[in-house]
Design brief:
The complex is a heterodimer of chains A (about 260) and B (about 250). Chain A is built from eleven helices and no strands. Chain A is globular and about 75 Å long. Chain A has a domain of about 140 residues: MetI-like (MetI-like fold), CATH 1.10.3720.10. With about 260 residues, chain A is mainly alpha-helical. Chain B has about 250 residues and is α/β, with parallel strands linked by helices. Chain B has two domains: about 160 residues, P-loop containing nucleotide triphosphate hydrolases (Rossmann fold, 3-Layer(aba) Sandwich); about 55 residues, no CATH class. Chain B is built from nine helices and nine strands. In chain B, the strands form two sheets. Chain B has a six-stranded mixed sheet with strand order 5-6-7-3-8-9, with helices on both faces. Chain B has a three-stranded antiparallel sheet with strand order 2-1-4. The N and C termini of chain B lie far apart (about 55 Å). The complex binds adenosine-5'-triphosphate and magnesium ion. The site of magnesium ion (MG) has 4 residues of chain B, from helix 2.
Chain lengths: ~260, ~250
């Protein structure tokens, strides 16, 4: 009962939007539907192109998953390094921010030149667009540790390393998860753009091919799959967080992260 | 082993395990200079319980941090044996169970988890926390949290305990319970204790001596011996009298 009440608004909103969309395309006519296909056409494409979509989805999924893993590892290590070195923070932060302003279109050819046309350059693009949020949220988590806790550890004669291990690291984990959740959404976009250069597979490639062939419905079907994938990853991360950090969700466990 | 006897006279002399002499401490803040302590002195013999009372903001926490070596004095001298702090807020780690929080000081020294748990378990049991050994702080009551926090400080194994208003956040009944409880612990596990409180009655019930501090910038304005046997009752006329004396020193009219 509760469950229904909670999910009902989302479901109703979705149905309403799809209905409006269907109607809008219907009114605009069949030529228009070559640019913006109606929901039923997308559903049709999802079914008829399922083999093609599935095999290309596997390619993109691999890029995204590996990219997120790399981004998490790199982002986390970078956050720790920045936490320990104010100099590195001052030196690296402007560059980190700048790196987020570099469009993938500029980057992709260079990466293709260096790394070829396989999985690697896509993985790098995905990691590049998604590591930033992990760095920022993890650094914030590390810096937000109560200074009184650090004092307490000093009266316990804890070494810097042990203070990090027992206090700062666990305290930073919720932030790292938040960063990873943000990263999930952008990483999918990153993979699509990465596939627009020097690739012949993946859902991004499918979209790129479908549009000039006037197969917008197929492109849209790929988008639907990408969206569902992002939602699934996001939910999975949320679940992992609940399992890994149960204290965050205890009654007086203060704020809940996104 | 020639050096060993050298330690004996130190103890026999009854040399203080905490000595604070004419210490001043100021902080630069955005709104200018704040003098927290000015000419504060205090000493504590080994195993003595010295209660420090003073109005809010008079530098009590600063004093404890000086004793624990967490900050240096601007002037004056601070000498103290190894001291462990029990912070004003319990500062338990939300991700650790009661037993792991209690053993944090051991873990901080590199003691393996299982060993730290073994050391903490009998204490938790003794303090009525046996059913909550694996409970996280968010699900403990205020009194339980204070007990875990105190245990954590005790298990650090330091000869000096710096307790910063350990029971201030508790309701009156729990506070009385906890005061009795602390008295018990210190009987079986004697340490030098600097007990900061703003509750004069608590100071008289628990302290061997009570130091009354002035408002900021804090310094000692009165030292009151409490030559009463333990456990002390708050209704005992001698306790009441000393309490009034301390209150008068604080500038509160009875
Ligand atoms: N790190 C600091 N930076 C700036 N000001 C400080 C700092 N620490 C303490 N103070 C100031 O010094 C004064 C004494 O602080 P302290 O915390 O020692 O008082 P206290 O007696 O423990 O107060 P309370 O009873 O409220 O706990 C206060 O005015 C406080 O604002
Ligand atoms: Mg204080």
């Amino acid at each position: 009962m509760n469950r229904i009440r909670r999910t009902a608004p989302a479901a109703l909103l979705l149905i309403a939007l799809l209905g409006a969309w269907e109607l809008y395309v219907d009114v605009k006519g069949s030529t228009f539907s070559l640019i913006l296909p109606a929901p039923h056409q997308v559903a049709q494409a999802l079914y008829t192109d399922r083999g093609l979509l599935w095999s290309n989805f596997l390619v993109t999924a691999e890029e995204v998953l590996l990219g997120i893993v790399v981004a998490t590892v790199v982002g986390f290590l970078l956050a720790v390094a920045i936490h320990f070195s104010p100099t590195l923070r001052r030196a690296a932060y402007p560059l980190l921010v700048a790196s987020q302003a570099v469009p993938v279109v500029i980057l992709a050819p260079v990466l293709a030149f260096w790394l070829g046309f396989g999985l690697l350059p896509k993985l790098v693009v995905v990691a590049m667009v998604s590591f930033f949020s992990i760095v920022v949220t993890t650094t914030a988590g590390l810096a937000a540790v109560d200074p009184d806790l650090l004092k307490l550890m000093r009266t316990f004669d804890a070494s810097r390393a042990r203070t990090f291990w027992h206090i700062e690291l666990p305290a930073a984990l919720p932030g790292a998860f938040t960063g990873a959740k943000i990263a999930v959404a952008v990483s999918v976009i990153g993979a699509v753009f990465a596939e627009w250069n020097g690739s012949n597979s993946g859902l991004g490639y499918v979209i790129l091919q479908a549009l000039p062939q006037l197969k917008a419905a197929r492109g849209m079907a790929a988008v639907v799959i990408l969206s569902l994938f992002a939602i699934a990853l996001f939910a999975l991360l949320g679940l992992a967080e609940r399992l890994a950090l149960p204290w965050v969700y205890l009654p007086s466990g203060k704020e809940q992260t996104a | 082993m020639i050096e060993a006897p050298a330690k004996e006279p130190r103890e026999l002399n009854g040399e203080d395990s905490v000595r604070v002499e004419l210490v001043s401490r100021a902080f630069q803040t955005r709104r200018g200079r704040v003098d927290a302590l000015a000419g504060m002195s205090l000493h504590a013999a080994p195993r003595e319980v010295v209660a420090v009372v003073g109005p809010s903001g008079c530098g009590k926490t600063t004093l404890l941090e000086l004793i624990c070596g967490l900050q240096p004095p601007d002037s004056g001298r601070v000498q103290a044996g190894p001291a462990a702090l029990m912070p004003q807020r319990d500062l338990l780690l939300p991700w650790l169970s009661a037993i792991d929080n209690a053993g944090l000081a051991l873990r901080a020294r590199g003691v393996p988890r299982e060993q730290a748990r073994k050391a903490a378990a009998p204490w938790l049991e003794r303090f009525g926390l046996a059913p909550f050994v694996h409970t996280r702080p968010a699900e403990l009551s205020g009194g339980m949290r204070q007990r875990v926090s105190f245990l954590r400080t005790l298990l650090a194994g330091k000869p000096v305990l710096a307790l910063d208003e350990p029971f201030a956040a508790l309701d009156a009944i729990t506070r009385q319970e906890m005061q009795g409880w602390l008295g018990h612990v210190l009987e079986s596990e004697p340490r030098t204790v600097i007990l900061v409180t703003h509750d004069v009655e608590e100071a008289v019930i628990l302290g061997d001596r009570v130091i009354v501090m002035s408002p900021r910038p804090g310094h000692a304005v009165r030292e009151i011996e409490v030559p009463l046997a333990r456990p002390r009752k708050r209704t005992d006329p001698a306790v009441v009298e000393l309490r009034e004396e301390a209150l008068t020193a604080l500038g509160v009219q009875a």
